[in-house]
Amino acid sequence: KAGVTQTPRYLIKTRGQQVTLSCSPISGHRSVSWYQQTPGQGLQFLFEYFSETQRNKGNFPGRFSGRQFSNSRSEMNVSTLELGDSALYLCASSSRPAENTEAFFGQGTRLTVV
Amino acid sequence: AQKITQTQPGMFVQEKEAVTLDCTYDTSDPSYGLFWYKQPSSGEMIFLIYQGSYDQQNATEGRYSLNFQKARKSANLVISASQLGDSAMYFCAMMKPGNQFYFGTGTSLTVIP
Q1: Do B101 and A101 lie within an 8 Å CB cutoff?
Q2: What is the side-by-side strand order in the sheet with A64-68?
Q3: Quick one: which H or E segment has residue A22?
Q4: Of the candidates A17, B10, B42, B75, which lies 20 to 30 Å from B23 by C-alpha distance?
Q5: Do B91 and A43 touch (CB under 8 A)?
Q6: Closest CA to A75 of A112, A16, A19, A23
C-alpha cells in the first residue's frame, strides 16, 4: 500500500511568485490536512479537506488556499510569495471524518522563497 | 483551546537504555486522540503510536509505549531499548474533531553509542 506522496520535494521560488504543492493521500483515505513547519512557529495547521470540502482552516492569510479533487488528491496554492513562506509543508492523510486512530504524513515539500 | 506542551527541548540516552519523552496537554473536549510522531532530518513525520481519551489501557507498539495519565493530562512516550536510528525529533500531538492536529514544540532525542 503506497504511503502519502507529496510533490515536489523541493522548490525554490522568488518573492511575488505563486506556487502549487500536491498531496496524494493513502488509497481510500478521504481526509487531507496541511501543515506549515518553520523553526520559529513550529507546526501550524493550514486547512483540512474531506470529500472535496474544506472543513477547517487555520489562521493564515488568504494567499494560502487549497482544494481537493474527487480522487482525494489535494493541492495547496500560495500566491504572492513572501520570504516568510519559506517552510516545510506537510500533508496528512486520514480515513475517517473524525476520531481517527491513525494519520499518516508525507515526506513534505521544502519551499524556499528567495 | 487545545494546547500541547513538551518541556524537554533535547534529551540524550545511551544505546539500549529506555527513555521517556514528556507531553502534557490541555483540552476541554471529552473525546480526543493523542499521537506521537518521529521526524528524522529528512522531514517526514512517522506515526509511532496513538492513545484515545477513552482507552483504559496504555497503548503499545513494539518498543514504543504511551504512559497515559488522564487525570494529570499527560501522555508520555516511552522508548525501550534505544537504538541509534531513534535519534530524531519527536512530536506529541492532539487531534481535534475535523482531523486538525495541535502539535507540541518537539523533543530532540540523541542516542549515544
Answers
A1: no
A2: A5-7, A19-24, A74-78, A64-68
A3: strand A19-24
A4: B42
A5: yes
A6: A23
Contact A90 B103 (CB under 8 A): no
Name residue, grid cell 486538525.
B100
Chain A residues in contact with B98 by the CB 8 A cut-off are 48, 55-56, 97-98
Residue-wise pLDDT tens digits, A24-40: 999 999 999 999 999 99
Residues of A in contact with B101 (CB under 8 A): 33, 35, 43, 45, 92, 103
Supply B37's cell numbers.
510522531
B73 vs B45: CA distance, rounded Å: 24
- Binding-site residues on chain A for chain B (CB distance < 8 A): 31, 33, 35, 42-43, 45, 48, 50, 55-56, 58, 88, 90, 92, 94, 97-108, 110
A80 dihedral zone (left: phi>0; alpha: psi -120 to 50; beta): left
Q: Which three cell numbers stand for residue A12?
A: 525554490
CB A32 within 8 A of CB A71: no
- Helix locations, chain B, DSSP H: none
Question: What is the C-alpha to C-alpha distance for residues A22 and B29, in angstroms, rounded to an integer?
Answer: 32
